[in-house]
Amino acid sequence: MSKEGMNKVLEFYNSVSEKGRLERGLGIIEFHRTKQILSKYINKDSNVIYDIGGGVGVYSDWLARKNNNVHLLELSPNAVEYAKSNYNTFISEVCDARDINKDNESADIILLMGPLYHLQNIADRLKVLDECYRVLKKGGLLFSVGISKFSTTTWALSTFGTRNELLTEKPFMNMIEMELKEGIHDRPQDYPYLLTHAYFHTPLQLQNEIETVGFKTLNKHAIEGTIWFTPDLNKKWEDIETRDILLNILEITEHEIEIMGMSPHFMVVSQK
């Protein structure tokens, strides 16, 4: 990662931008679904878990409360300080995912739900994956999350003419053309509310990168899936009956590779 890119990512997360994100909007569905997927595989306690790039520690806290030994390893010092001040269930440390300060084969489980989509250079992403392979025990599980290269475009299309006219704006179109062609996401100054400096994958591309360093793929899951553009989604989510309908659709289609790219986030589950 370039120094400029690192500075952009640090600036974004040092603002503690993740605070409350999973408690509003589409983050509510992302949080519910991510926990649902993780629970399919993490079904016993007392695991040593490294939550690498885990932001302010929301998932770390959830897993620690399930009697796991959790370490939040996060690039942003401000996010680590926030975690230390607001949670007492896990250990929080500043860490660059490309150089994990942990012993070989010391973790049962690794959550990698951020670093891979903030590293635009494939050499950096492979360095992170190599480090994860090193510190995972044999048979250990790796949960890697990617952002779809189609995510900004599908969002803009689904709200075009109702909530925005972004597709008529040249800086926005230049941004999504680069995402679609190269996977590179560079946020123009015109849109400070968008995600910072990032790399967007396709599901198969992320799987292939993970397998390059020796991991075996167990499964792939769409996280928000195809339900995310449902009109008035959050209102419908509050109704238990409607929520069950939406979740049923999502769970039936969560492994369909043909439409997985429609999901803003997807998860690849791998084993060493």
UniProtKB/TrEMBL annotation:
Entry keywords, A to Z: Methyltransferase, Transferase
CDD domains from the UniProt entry: AdoMet_MTases
The keyword Metal-binding is assigned to this record: no
Organism encoding this protein: Paeniclostridium hominis
InterPro entries for this protein: Methyltransf_11 (IPR013216), SAM-dependent_MTases_sf (IPR029063)
Molecular function, one GO term: methyltransferase activity
Pfam families per the UniProt record, alphabetical: Methyltransf_11
Record domain Methyltransferase type: where: 51-143
Keyword Methyltransferase included in the entry's annotation: yes
Protein name per the record: Class I SAM-dependent methyltransferase
Lineage: Bacteria, Bacillati, Bacillota, Clostridia, Peptostreptococcales
GO terms of biological process kind: methylation
